[in-house]
Amino acid sequence: MFKFLRKYNKWILAVGGTLLMIVFLIPQAIEGLAHSAGTARATRAMVVGADGSEQRITAGQWADVTSEFDLINRGGQRGSMIPAIGRLDGAPHWFLLTHEAEMAGLVGPPGSVQITQEMVNQLGVRVDVARRAMAKLDGVYRLLSLYQTAGEVSDHRLKEYARRILHQAEIEYFVVPASADASEYQPSNEELAAHLEEFGRVAPGEGEMGFGYRLPDRVKLEWLSVPAESVRQAIRDSDEMDNVSLRAHWMRQLRDPETTLPPIGDDPTIPQAVRDHMLEQLTNERLDAIARFANDQFRANRRGLSQRDGYFILPEDWSARKLSFEAVAEEIQSRFDVEAPEYRATGDRWLEFDELDELEGIGEATTDRFGTTLRDLYDLVTGAMEFGGSAIAQVQKGVTGPPLRTADGGVHLFRMVDVDASRAPHSVDEVRDQLVRDLRRRDHYQQLKGQLSGIEQTAQHDGMLSAAMDFDTYLQNVSVTLADFAELSRMMQTGEAIVPVSRAIPGIGVNREATEAIIERAMQLPAGAELQELSDDQRIFVLPVDDNLALLGVRIVRNEPLTRELYSVTTNTVKMMLLNEELGTERLRKEFSLDKLIERNQFRLYTPAGEEDVELIELDDLPGQVLPAE
User: Fold this and answer.
1) Which of 9, 26, 95, 150 is the most buried (most CB within 10 A)?
2) Is 426 a member of any domain?
3) Rg for the chain (alpha carbons), in Å?
4) How many domains are contained in the chain?
5) Please, are residues 234 and 339 in contact by the beta-carbon 8 Å criterion?
């Protein structure tokens, strides 16, 4: 017996130890599976139907909702959402929109949606998630379209509307903008504070006279860069590419039937193509190793931290505990014998999102960590937890993001040092220069308006060029209309509400009021050759453009009224424009806003199971009570 035990003791220990481990772990595994199953079945949200019945949404179903929302969020241009109603307020907004579309029977079966494997690879999600999201999105578009086109209009009213909205006029014009430098007005601190109080919460360009001082989403960054060329040069200067290593590399590559390297001959000289091939291979391997090493260092630094919904719960002393980029840079330089990585930081400067792509090196870098879709710095930062979060690419302040790689293999690591979500300025000092400049421009604009009649008389009697030269400006020509066909085509393609958008006037931009004034004056004049018989007194006028704080001198050159042929092919589009104008896009957005949807569906959002202190979104954004999970 003892001989048997001595002979097979290793096998006995291996098998017996494995059996003991299985016996020990089975209860924990069963408990874990039960907990996961229970969590997936826990109530995450609730809606109430028209008949008073309650519909429960489980945590598992809600996870699908967040995946769909993330897909739709990434499907537009840099986070644009449902064009007809604007940007969605998180996963609850997406869920309630699709819920109403489903209740109306407007969402088709997911299997009917054509999704190619290439599209799935680009989107970076499972094909069933993509099909379900696309089917729901189509249902939402149908719902909004039905709401927009529910009204009816008379044929006479439709023709009169079309005659005005599709009229075109070619004009010669000049712009006299107000200038802060032309005003001696010095606003007091009290005046600046009052002006900020009035327009501080308004986005730039959207308030009266174009005023608006709401600060955009901003971020402060630090990042570490290992340029591919610095690694390439380090390898080039090392002993790694001696003749023995080069010849061995050459022989290995020749075993590949698709190699492009020349065959080995009698000449002992190693071709440059072999040197270049080996250098590129060693460079890529070294850069891959550096990226893995750096990522492992930061992961080790986060070990032991708790997570919630995929994000780390950072301790109060994290700023002191987190691994510094300088320390990692020293380790990389020492371990890989390369030039010290470049450390950069924005310091006190805030970066707006549009500036992220302009950062040298890292602005062009991407990562494939979150599926097959490449994500760049812009995608990661704009989807950070502090800016609404992402169900897939989870990034947060104070935590180093995934390594980013440039096309040549360069490695870039970044961390958000500070974030500042869009808000009104806290004080005048944050936007003092802009406030002073705008108030001085407004003062000069009032002076210009006082000269309007004189400017108009100069243009009528001495000519448009003379009036323009008095203000050191120049003449331009453009065709204006209240419904730009290029914009209408874009709206149809993107599924937006079809509304008239006036054609831009260079120097003024898209300005509905100014264009309406021009079209109204033009429609009072004859068309064709008869127009040329009128005097300049009848064709020249000057308009105040409040939104631009500018005067617009206009001479009507040609009139192009709506033709019967054009009306016949645009009748349906014109009808949609009229209905949408009377309905108003603001009303549409209000009816399908998160607040209205919550009210209509008596929506309640529960906290995740087992985490009663967690809220998915802020209470201010979600009216009603956020209840603990069942």
Assistant:
1) 95
2) no
3) 33
4) 4
5) yes
Nearest to 592 by CA among 67, 130, 95, 64: 95
Over the stretch 464-477, which tens digit does the pLDDT of each residue have?
A: 999 999 999 999 99
**Are residues 340 and 468 part of one domain?**
no
* HSE toward the beta carbon, residue 267, CA cutoff 13 A: 5
**Is beta strand 540-545 parallel, antiparallel or unpaired with respect to 54-58?**
unpaired
Mark which of 396, 420, 444 sits at the end of a domain.
420
DSSP string spanning 191-251? HHHHHHHHHTTSPTTSSGGG---PBPPEEEEEEEEE-HHHHHHHHHTSSTT-HHHHHHHHH
The reply to whether 172 and 74 lie within a common domain is no
What are the tokens at 2?
A: 């003892």
Q: What is the pTM of this model?
A: 0.66
Dihedral sign of CA atoms 296, 302, 306, 312 in order: negative
Together in a domain, 297 and 321: yes
Identify the burial level of 122 via C-beta atoms within 10 angstroms of its C-beta, where 0-12 means exposed, 13-18 middle and 19 or more buried.
middle
Poorest-pLDDT segment among 86-100, 228-242, 324-338, 403-417: 86-100
83 in the same domain as 30: no
Show the CA angle centred on residue 314, arms to residues 309 and 319, nearest 5°.
Answer: 150
Same domain, residue pair 538 and 599: no
Burial class of residue 505, CB neighbours in 10 A (0-12, 13-18, 19+): buried
> Which residue shows structure tokens 């048997």?
4
| Tokens (6 digits) for 358 | 């302009």
**Claim to verify: residue 9 and residue 68 sit in the same structural domain:** no
Does 233 lie in the same domain as 276? yes
pLDDT band at 32 (very low <50, low <70, confident <90, very high): very low
CA angle at 620 for the pair 306 and 47, rounded to the nearest 5°: 85
pLDDT of residue 585: 61
425 belongs to a structural domain: no
Q: Are 536 and 505 in contact (CB under 8 A)?
A: no
Domain span at residue 233 reads 218-420
One domain for residues 607 and 581 = yes
Question: Where does residue 147 rank: exposed (0-12), middle (13-18), buried (19+ CB within 10 A)?
Answer: middle
